Hints:
By secondary structure, this protein is mainly alpha-helical. The protein has helices at 13-39, 44-51, 54-87, 93-99, 102-105, 108-119, 126-129, 140-165, 168-176, 181-210, 213-219, 229-238, 242-276.
Amino acid sequence: MSTFKQHSVLPGFNLALGFTLLYLSLIVLIPLSAAFFRAAELTWTEFWTVVTTPRVLASYRLTFGASFAAALTNALFGLLIAWVLVRYQFTGKRLIDALIDLPFALPTAVAGIALTALYAGNGWIGQFLEPLGIKVAFTPVGIYVALTFIGLPFVVRTVQPVLEDIETELEEAAAMLGANRLQIFLRIIFPAIFPALMTGFALAFARAIGEYGSVIFIAGNMPMVSEITPLLIITKLEQYDYAGATAIAVVMLVISFILLLIINLLQWWSRHRNALA
């Protein structure tokens, strides 16, 4: 009896892997390696001096701190929004579902201008906050607000499909066995959505780190106070300090890669533990 090999419309593994590596090299690896080569024009002492000045360190703390806080906020409220959209039926649900994607389609500069108009001292929201001593526009708080705005869809759209796939029969069975709502969420729902939630968090965090357009309008851009690292890189480029700009960019790239690697390891650990459970 002869055996027939089933052919796939896709290329074989070796060819597909070759195309994958070629594409990643052209789009990702070569541009990033160019930044490392340009930064290598500096000596180690010059490099260290550039990336550890008080102004640069302050921009690192603000950029990564605000990005982490915004991503964490989006993870919490993005999960809540995804839960409402999946589990409940109400008037206006389709409109709210469409509004989630608005930060994707809205140009970042437009988002920054709109947020500044809202939270400025004479804005619709800012005029009520400033008498209470809460100043949002032109402060680090404004940066946090802008990064939260642009990162929300990443969490919602990542968690939403996973919630839709969870069988409600498991929750009903747990309830019949005496589990309360908190126990059902912690032992059934949360382990299933945790990898997706971490993915959404990582995407929102990565987007926030590199965000520029929506932030510069609401930040105030004051050195040592509300100046983000991407703006500092642009400033050095405008001063024709290409080596200094790439040195700061390399530090951001390395830190971002390490943080995202840690998040991916947490995702792998969560999936592996759930598979063994």
